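Title: Prediction job returns without error message
Component: structure pipeline
Severity: low
Priority: P3
Assignee: unassigned

Description:
Job completed but the reporter wants confirmation the result is attached to the right record. Sequence as submitted:
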Amino acid sequence: MVVQIKDFTTPGSEIFANLTERELRNSYERKGGFFIAESPNVIDRALTAGYEPISFLMEEKHITGDAAFLIQRYPDLPVFTAPRQVLEQITGYKLTRGVLCALKRKEPCTPEEVLKNAKRVVVLENLADATNMGAIFRSAAALGIDGVLLTPECADPLNRRCLRVSMGNVFLVKWARIGKTAADWPENGMNLLKATGFKTLSMALRNNSVDIDDPALYNQDKLAILLGTEGDGLLPYTIEHSDYVAKIPMKDGVDSLNVAAAGAIIFWELRAGRTH
């Protein structure tokens, strides 16, 4: 059902209004809520993962173009449309791919569900940047990470930018919040990892740091890799209570990498089943 719009006074189109990510998330918490996915490929992965679509917003040319297969799959859903310049004016942001979809959120996984049968997981501690998070999810999906755990202060993986940077791979990797409030991490979360048989590895520069190719690391059956927030890194408690502390060996004068780049290297080096 195609509906031409000039603003968000058209009933049903207000879901695409110029809301902040916090407002989208708060709406979810109050009402069962939604998130916005962008680009046909990302939307397709969300639908394949079982998320229920509410409506589409797109440039007119995509109705019979890149998004035609999505519309054919859900012919009864509203498809709000207008020229690109009108859409950008009323949404308040540039449409990189010209196609948006509002989808209902699902009941999130629990940490225990993520850890069950997993061999390699990554724990993101207080990671705030959606771009970095999206890149980490993309690397995790590609390089054999079984699950992603997020501390309560992390950004939302269903953030529109995170979804786009991850190329929809957020929908291919199990993830969960490891705790509901800041008080649940790090002590309670670290205890859960250890209780479920995981050895914990903090990535940090310390006197006791080993290189990531240390056999003690890649020989672990179940390993949780902990990556810290941009700038400050991991909390002192997290590092002190980890089974291992490791670093990526680098040339003199360089002491660190962007957290997303570091994650890709670590995931490849410590993948399950790796042998020398």
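Comment from assignee: result matches the submitted record. The chain has eleven helices and twelve strands.
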